[in-house]
Amino acid sequence: MNSISLNRYLIIFILLAVIIIIPYLINNILIKNSKKASKINVLDAISTLLKTDPKDKGFVVFVGKADYMYVQYTRDYFGLLFNWPIFLDKSERTPELANKAIKVLNKYGITANEENNGQSIKDLYLPYKKIIFNKEDDTWISLNVNVGDNAEEIYNLTIDLFLYVFNIEDVNDLKIDLVLKSK
Asked: What is the pLDDT of the chain when averaged over all its residues?
């Protein structure tokens, strides 16, 4: 064999490697790893967020069948902060849904504490298991709760919120957006 035919075989071998092996590696290593990362469950997301540094202001949002069907928590110094925005315009996230959420929160011993008229939630001390109603110009805009740092209890609360507020029984289909460090 001369060097030209050897080079030809080498080029064919390299081309086959590029055409067959690299797509195989991408499909079986990179894609599988990203699927595993996206398959985090509700309890794992809550537990992971609780392990982060509160200064990083991480958060998690669990989203159901429609965009307005969500439950969200932010990492804070006491554990997690539950935040329930109330949209009074044409949104489906209405005060009626907030009232359903309050009933679920009451089931966990979480009760109303005080109204907040425009003061930033960041400036408030949020007592454990007390609902802070956030208002601006006599309009309810959100309710906020310090839900602490018990991952199991927060998990159960999340499940009940989806069940009793949004009629979603299977939380395995929720979209989970977990951000461990907010910009």
From this structure: 76
Q: What is the pLDDT of residue 164?
A: 95
Mean pLDDT of 124-130: 62
- How far is residue 47's CA from residue 58's CA, in Å, rounded to a whole number? 12
* DSSP code per residue over 83-138: EEE---SS-S--HHHHHHHHHHHHHTT-EEEEEEES--GGGS---BTEEEEEEETT
Cβ-based neighbours of 166, under 8 Å, separated by 6 or more: 64, 65, 69, 97
Q: Which two tokens stand for residue 103?
A: 């009933």
DSSP 77: T
Residues 46 and 154: beta-carbon distance below 8 Å = yes
Phi-psi region of 70 (alpha: psi -120 to 50; beta: other; left: phi over 0): beta
Percentage of the chain with pLDDT > 70? 61
- Dihedral (C-alpha) 127, 42, 179, 29: value to the nearest 10 degrees? 160
